[in-house]
UniProtKB/TrEMBL annotation:
This is Saccharopine dehydrogenase family protein. Residues 141-390 form the Saccharopine dehydrogenase-like C-terminal domain. It comes from the Bacteria. Pfam families: Sacchrp_dh_C (PF16653), Sacchrp_dh_NADP (PF03435). Residues 4-137 form the Saccharopine dehydrogenase NADP binding domain. The lineage of its organism: Bacteria, Pseudomonadati, Pseudomonadota, Alphaproteobacteria, Sphingomonadales. PANTHER family: CARBOXYNORSPERMIDINE SYNTHASE.
Length: 403
């Protein structure tokens, strides 16, 4: 497996492609295609300047399966790295099946007309990938991705079973704008305005969006309000760790972000229902996304750190009773920008996308069918996190979280 085709040319793709080019012994040939070719060319130019590596670029609408099939065949790609948007997951998987190539992504499928991301659509491809002898790896970003691997590493090395899990995602970066999202605005706003859901005693408990919050003191950031949210790794983590009594996901938001989002919601700008405007049908959220700052434009001004990790409580592997561990990564926006020209939210997603792809290319992870990242051995992935810009730390806490 030596030829990779990356789809999408946003912030996540930019980081992933830069990191691939920095590891040319694993990725000797990189191809990059997206809806807007000029964005691929800009990434290729930056990669050339920073690493000396050349990258081929193409224009593609990844929702057009025959066009994707032609492109994969023309390149002779072995693996497609999907860093476009969740809407493209299924057409890209169809094209992979038709051409006999492997697949990896960072976000699960979501239909355009319903803000409901779930794994069921992609899990339904398992038998077809298995019969074709192909591997599809789902969720190789940070969350999902690293948070899932962190949890499975704790379960391999520290805890026999996990009783409670809390994933804490803090972006302590300041981009100097009144309101902006640090990854694709449309996907981000669909995610944070959806009702919160967490796993408790074998079922999903739903609460209104952004209502339940706790304050947590994040290392390298300081105290922040973290809000209970639904996040896609809760679905796979609860599937692969059925013993868990409770699993929750928390994300920090500043008061300014909440204020702007509340107003935008109240006036209908976050709606995905089409409205007629000057004789044309438009989706308010798509229009809003078009006027908000592009996430890839925030890199230069963003200062501060991200701190994302998992707190897990369960029965210790060594038989010493119940223990609680906190495992996390701290990433600097400035350092991420200096290395790749992108801020830390793109960096913390693009690096694990490169590492997951490296696991498949090198054969450290293999399989036939559709797999979530939780099903793979966490150790080689964790080693690469340390070596490629996302070092992690683990410590024992005095007891379970009290929020
Ligand atoms: P961006 O919006 O910056 O980039 C998305 C790219 O996909 C753009 O270049 C866009 O093209 C391209 N694209 C959109 N539609 C198509 C299409 N039909 N065919 C081909 N290309 C298309 O997003 P990000 O880089 O911030 O995020 C990329 C992905 O990563 C998203 O799926 C997001 O959900 C996921 N993500 C995952 C995280 C994790 O931790 N697991 C965290 C953050 C993001 P154009 O430029 O022309 O619009």
């Amino acid at each position: 497996m030596s030829k990779v085709l990356v789809i999408g040319a946003g912030g996540v793709s930019s980081v992933c492609v830069h990191k691939m080019a920095m590891n040319s012994e694993i990725f000797p040939e990189i191809h990059l295609a997206s809806r807007t070719r000029s964005k691929c060319d800009a990434i290729a130019a930056s990669v050339k300047t920073r690493t000396g590596q050349s990258i081929e670029t193409y224009e593609i609408d990844a929702e057009e399966v025959p066009a994707m099939v032609n492109l994969i065949k023309k390149i002779g790609a072995d693996l497609v790295v999907n860093l476009a948007l969740p809407y493209q997951d299924l057409p890209i998987m169809d094209a992979c099946l038709e051409t006999g190539v492997h697949y990896i992504d960072t976000a699960n499928y979501e239909p355009k007309d319903e803000a409901k991301f779930e794994y069921k659509w992609q899990w339904a491809y398992h038998d077809r990938f298995k019969e074709a002898g192909l591997m599809a790896l789902l969720g190789s970003g940070f969350d999902p991705g690293v948070t899932s691997v962190f949890t499975m590493w704790l379960k391999k090395h520290k805890l026999k079973t996990i009783r409670t899990l809390d994933i804490l995602d803090c972006n302590g970066g300041d981009h100097g704008q009144a309101f902006a999202t640090n990854f694709n605005p449309e996907i981000n706003i669909r995610e944070v305005t959806a009702p919160a859901r967490h796993w408790e005693n074998g079922e999903w408990v739903e609460t209104p969006a952004m209502q339940v919050k706790t304050e947590f003191d994040f290392e390298a950031v300081g105290p922040k309000n973290a809000y209970l949210m639904y996040h896609e790794e809760l679905e796979s983590l609860s599937k692969f760790n059925p013993e868990m009594e409770r699993a929750r996901f928390w994300m920090t938001f500043g008061d300014e972000y909440i204020k702007h989002l509340t107003v935008l919601q109240n006036v209908g700008m976050t709606s995905i229902e089409p409205v007629r405007y000057q004789g044309k049908e438009i989706i308010p959220l798509q229009f809003l996304a078009a006027v908000l700052p592009k996430p890839e434009s925030l890199g230069e001004t963003t200062k501060g750190n991200t701190n994302i990790g998992c707190i897990a409580t369960g029965e210790a592997l060594d038989g010493s009773g119940e223990k609680t561990f906190y495992i996390n990564n701290i990433c600097s926006h400035e350092a991420a920008y200096e290395e790749t020209g992108n801020q830390a939210v793109s960096y913390t997603t693009g690096v694990p996308a490169m590492i997951g792809t490296a696991m498949m290319v090198t054969g450290k992870w293999s399989g036939k069918g559709v797999f979530n990242i939780e099903e793979m051995d966490p150790d080689p992935f964790m080693d690469m996190l340390n070596a490629h810009g996302l070092p992690w730390q683990v410590k024992e806490l005095d007891g379970p979280v009290q929020f």
